[in-house]
Specification:
Blueprint: H1 3-28, H2 33-45, E1 54-60, E2 67-73, H3 78-91, H4 95-100, H5 102-106, H6 112-117, E3 121-122, H7 129-136, E4 140-143, E5 154-160, H8 165-169, E6 181-186, H9 194-200, E7 204-212, E8 215-223, H10 233-286, E9 290-294, E10 300-303, H11 305-311, H12 315-318, E11 328-330, E12 333-334, H13 335-345, E13 349-354, E14 356-358, E15 361-362, E16 367-374, E17 383-390, H14 392-440, H15 447-470, E18 479-482, H16 483-499, E19 504-509, H17 511-515, E20 520-523, H18 525-542, E21 548-554, E22 590-597, H19 604-609, H20 625-635, E23 639-645, E24 649-657
Helix pairs in contact: 1-2, 1-10, 2-10, 14-15, 16-18, 18-20
Bound molecules: adenosine-5'-diphosphate (ADP) and magnesium ion.
């Protein structure tokens, strides 16, 4: 090689390095992927650059993994080519000048080639040369102008000298022999994707793999369709250098943009989180209760303004501090002790209509307080939520309502009392006057008149007694009461009254329970006797001659009264669930007494009103019997209900807790 040739070679190398330098400088100034691709393709095609006629870029689609056409630069016809080149030549642009120029910046208009390449998608097919190229990192020089069908495939291997494979391919296995870079010449059209061949519309082109480290980025294709200049090994040598630079720039930009997208998604998420936090806080703030959340160390982790006001501190100064720094008592019970209990037993606790004493200060306000165990996540230990509601106004209203009700009842009572007393008084007055007149006239006193007076006085006495019972003025003393004996006594007492009307009182079930005489309750014998007699007397009152009054006693409330009227079996009316069993968890054993007579209550309204004071259907009734009975049963922690139907008559059920002796 002559000295001139060597100088020319070096000048060429210098020029191409200069081009690379200019491209890399411009690429470094932007993070816009489209612009970077355009700079690279312009560098490849501009006369002052590598001067190829056309350049095409395909990138690997991250979803489909196909090679997708991304950008193309080059004239779409020979005429067009001359026009563009002459224009650039006129302006005498250098590559650097052109990349910096407004024309490059503003050139939005898409060429026909560029528009078309975006529709091309080359699916993964390892037999196709374009994919092989990406696989082994070796450029392919294609010439399918003289393709013979079934001819030789990969024909010759060209070696491009003087470039270190490690420099070019990074970690890609360099297919080099003797430190030389290989270019494979292809002349079999079958190895070119048909869509690509049709798009290229020119049989000679070169495929350069774009690989950044081991990551396949895409493919650069160049050709010289319009001046038909052969692509030389020197061209390929520099295209490889450019390809490597392009691959890493493209990859870095993609990573950067992904990162930017992630950051913006993250900041959106952050905004949403903040919004949710605000939203939740607003909810907690807007409900008219005080809320405190404490962790297992009694540290306040959350509370609302209302709570701050209640404790007498700013909400902010309360959060993060120990709640036991404050002395808070609920009706004398320490709140801290209760929190401890709720956390330890993992069970909610409620205090209703209570007073609070906070840091030594007691108010007249009344509160409902609920403590609930709380765990924020699986990992975090248990804490508690305390909800405090000021119910002072509600309680005041309730009391006022209660008073009003009492007053109205009092009014009704007075009217009935007056009415009830007036009738016997008129009778007594009338008969007493008659006795006096007869006495003055010297006539014999009619003993019948005196008996009427005595009867009416008895009636007056009864009314007064019942009113006194209703008004609860009779003292109630509790002791152990043998309910078996008491029941027998009452039944025998009632039997005497029933016999006069040929009414039969029979035990349908559970007679052994009263005969064994071993059931006890804690209560007042007198009051219970009154309650039981009221029920039995009402049953007698409601019965016609030769009717039957049926009694059933049970201590489990289930099968023993299976067929008893009111048990709910066989489509009957039934009692509420409290009568379906006695042994619910945590409850003492109990006795249920059922009393049935065949007369039914005339309608549903009767059943509703039957326990109300002064409800009576009897001419001489007071309507207080059942009201008093219900009150007595409830004073003994029991319950009473009634069930009535035409088929089964009326059944009363009384439930009382038994003593465990
Ligand atoms: N076993 C029963 N069968 C049918 N009706 C009854 C029975 N017990 C009570 N009643 C109805 O309930 C009303 C209220 O009873 P009660 O409160 O004892 O007052 P009184 O017996 O003075 O009428 C009775 O008047 C009667 O109509
Ligand atoms: Mg009665």
């Amino acid at each position: 090689m002559s000295a001139e040739d060597i100088i020319k070679d070096y000048q060429d190398i210098l020029r191409q390095y200069n081009i690379l330098n200019q491209i890399s400088k411009t690429v470094a100034s932007t993070l816009d992927l489209n612009k970077i691709l355009k700079i690279i393709l312009t560098g490849v095609t501009l006369g002052d650059g590598f001067g190829f006629n056309r350049a095409f870029l395909f990138l690997i689609d991250r979803h489909s993994k196909n090679l997708k056409g991304r950008m193309a630069i080059g004239p779409s016809s020979a005429d067009d080519a001359w026009k563009v080149w002459s224009e650039i030549q006129d302006k005498n642009y250098s590559l650097e000048e052109f990349l910096d120029s407004e024309r490059f910046e503003n050139e939005q208009q898409l060429s026909f080639l560029d528009e078309k390449i975006r529709n091309i998608s080359i699916p993964v097919d390892i037999n196709m040369v374009i994919w092989k190229c990406l696989e082994d990192g070796i450029p392919r020089n294609i010439d399918i102008s003289s393709t013979v069908p079934g001819g030789e495939n990969e024909a010759t291997i060209n070696s491009v000298k003087e470039i270190e494979p490690a420099v070019l391919f990074g970690e890609v296995k360099a297919p080099a022999q003797d430190n030389l870079i290989q270019v494979i010449n292809i002349n079999d059209a079958a190895l070119i994707d048909a869509e690509l061949a049709e798009y290229m519309d020119y049989p000679k082109f070169c495929i350069i793999p774009l690989i950044s480290r081991t990551k396949k980025v895409g493919i650069l294709i160049v050709d010289n369709k319009y001046n038909q200049r052969e692509i030389t090994p020197d061209d390929i040598k520099f295209l490889l250098l450019l390809g490597q630079f392009a691959a890493s720039s493209i990859r870095n930009t993609i990573i950067y943009n992904d990162l930017k997208d992630s950051i913006s998604a993250l900041s959106k998420l952050n905004m949403k989180l903040n919004y949710l936090k605000d939203y939740n806080e607003k909810i907690i703030e807007s409900i008219p209760v005080s809320i405190i959340v404490v962790d297992h160390n009694f540290t306040v982790t959350q509370c609302n303004e209302n709570c701050g006001k209640l404790i007498g501190f700013e909400k902010e100064t309360f959060i993060g501090k120990q709640i036991n720094a404050h002395e808070i008592f609920i009706d004398g019970v320490s709140l801290i002790d209760e929190i401890f209990k709720v956390i330890r037993e993992n069970k909610a606790e409620g205090f209703y209509k209570v007073n609070m004493k906070i840091n030594g200060e007691k108010t007249d306000e009344i509160f409902d307080i609920i403590l609930v165990p709380f765990r924020f996540s699986e990992e975090s230990p248990e804490g508690a939520v305390i909800i405090i509601e000021n119910v002072t106004n509600t309680v005041r209203l309730e009391t006022e309502l209660g008073n009003a009700k009492k007053l109205s009842q009092l009014g009704k009572l007075s009217a009935t009392v007056a009415h009830e007393i007036r009738n016997p008084l008129i009778a007594i007055g009338g008969y007493a006057a008659r006795v006096k007149r007869k006495f003055l006239e010297g006539e014999q006193t009619d003993i019948g008149n005196l008996e009427i007076i005595i009867e009416e006085v008895k009636r007056l006495e009864r009314i007064v007694n019942e009113i006194l019972d209703f008004a609860a003025s009779r003292e109630i003393k509790f002791s152990h009461v043998n309910i078996s004996n008491l029941l027998l006594e009452c039944i025998n007492f009632a039997k005497a009254a029933a016999e006069q009307n040929n009414i039969d009182i029979v035990f349908e079930c559970g007679s052994e329970l009263v005969e064994n005489a071993n059931l006890h309750v804690f209560g007042s014998r007198d009051h219970l006797k009154q309650a039981l007699l009221n029920i039995l007397n009402n049953a007698i009152d409601a019965s016609s001659k030769r009717d039957k009054i049926r009694i059933c006693i049970t201590t489990d409330g289930k099968d023993s009264y299976y067929d008893f009227p009111g048990s709910g079996h066989g489509g009957q009316e039934s009692f509420s669930s409290i009568f379906s069993g006695c042994r619910t968890e945590g409850e003492p054993e109990c006795i249920i007494i059922y009393v049935n007579n065949s007369a039914s209550l005339s309608n549903r309204e009767d059943i509703k009103n039957i326990f109300l004071p002064f409800y009576t259907t009897k001419t001489k009734g007071t309507g207080l019997g059942l009201t008093i009975t219900k009150k007595i049963i409830e004073q003994h922690s029991g319950a009473i209900e009634v069930c009535s139907s035409i088929e089964n008559g009326t059944t009363f059920a009384i439930k009382l807790p038994l003593l465990d002796i």
